Amino acid sequence: MSATINLENKHFPVLLDEIIKIISPRYSGTFLDCTFGQGGYSEKILENPNNKIIAFDRDINAIRLSELFKKKFEERFKFYHKKFSEIKDLETKNFKAIIFDLGYSTNQIFDEKKGLSFNFKGKLNMKMGLNSFSAHDVVNKLEKDELVKIFKYFGDEKDARKISQLIVKKREQNLLSTNDLVELINKAKKNYNYKKNKSTKIFQSLRIFVNQEVSELIYGLINAYRILPINSFIIVITFHSLEDKIVKFFFKNYSEDKNGSRYLPGLKNKNKFFELTKKKPIIPSYEEIKQNPPSRSAKLRYAKKISDGANFDEFLLKFKDLLEVEKIGNKLCQKKYLF
Ligand SMILES: C[S@@+](CC[C@H](N)C(=O)[O-])C[C@H]1O[C@@H](n2cnc3c(N)ncnc32)[C@H](O)[C@@H]1O
User: Fold this and answer.
1) Distance, CA of 147 to CA of 202 (rounded, Å)
2) Where does the pLDDT of residue 153 fall: very low under 50, low under 70, confident under 90, or very high at 90 and above?
3) Does 116 have pLDDT greater than 80?
4) What is the pLDDT of residues 224-254, one digit of tens each?
5) Domain assignments of the chain as residue spans, ordered by start
């Protein structure tokens, strides 16, 4: 497929060999690719003529490529232009694995209109697709204290208050663009000497907030568990520590038998819903990072579902504060969130 479709800014599928290694023993069946992107994983899995893919992506640009996949793979490939928090509505549920490759594809990062990067000039945007508001709305409409929360919780930005104050003051004169925001961050962080760009944390926090990435991930994982058959896998690749913390807790908390007792072996496994083959995440090799530098922050975690009936109250409670901060976005939405 890649040989026949000339994609601009081709995305290197991260940790592809490792994913194939995990799913190979179960090879032949239906797989759910929750983050189709440029189709790197879907294409590789479909090389096996016995496999089928159901794919999701929220970006409208993924539709064009999905049409080409449909032509080539016919009834073995189905695509939904939807957010992956909505996978629970699928009729097909016999998946061998459900895969999430979080983050952004190369064509999204280089898309000036999406304005994901601080290297672009122009109007703030950051919408991945199917959004209810943009970064322009966030920076120009929310209260100072709300901005502080977004920058602290999603960017771990220690100058969150100072930057929010400057934003509120500056926007009294004119609405802020991407370069206004970058200039203002540079001003707030005059004595900063760290390897990362000064704007990295603020831009990360805005991307997470605009795309409601925490709620998407949390409800995506819960729904993946709910629709997945026993003995099938959930595989997740994350690109920053906040995402990895959520995935790590999800797998770890629900793979431990906290009430199990060595004196009452009958109770063993009562609260175990996943089996973890590896406790540590899989990371890209030196060779992969050399070939594709953005893969350097990738972490792959996976688990096998071993029983039904998990209750996710503890998971939701653990990340309640982050979910609450994302709800600030309801103020900016025309359509209220469904979850
Ligand atoms: C890192 S890329 C995936 C790349 C893909 N694995 C490949 O090999 O080409 C992530 C993709 O997930 C999509 N995405 C991110 N969050 C999503 C969500 N909540 N629902 C659906 N798609 C999402 C993005 O639009 C993007 O296309």
Assistant:
1) 10
2) very high
3) yes
4) 999 999 999 999 999 999 999 999 999 999 9
5) 16-107+213-307, 128-212+322-337
CATH number of 16-107+213-307: 3.40.50.150
- The pLDDT assigned to 2 comes to 46
Question: What residues flank ligand 1, with Cβ below 6 Å?
Answer: 11, 13, 35, 37-41, 56-59, 62, 83-84, 101, 103-105, 128-129, 216
Burial of 21: CB neighbours in 10 Å, binned 0-12, 13-18, 19+: exposed
Q: What is the pTM of this model?
A: 0.93
- Residue 74 and residue 62: Cα distance in Å, rounded? 17
CATH number of 128-212+322-337: 1.10.150.170
Q: Which atom of ligand 1 is nearest the CA belonging to 12?
A: 8
How far apart are alpha carbons 181 and 277 in whole angstroms?
Answer: 44
Span from the CA of 103 to the centroid of ligand 1 (angstroms): 7
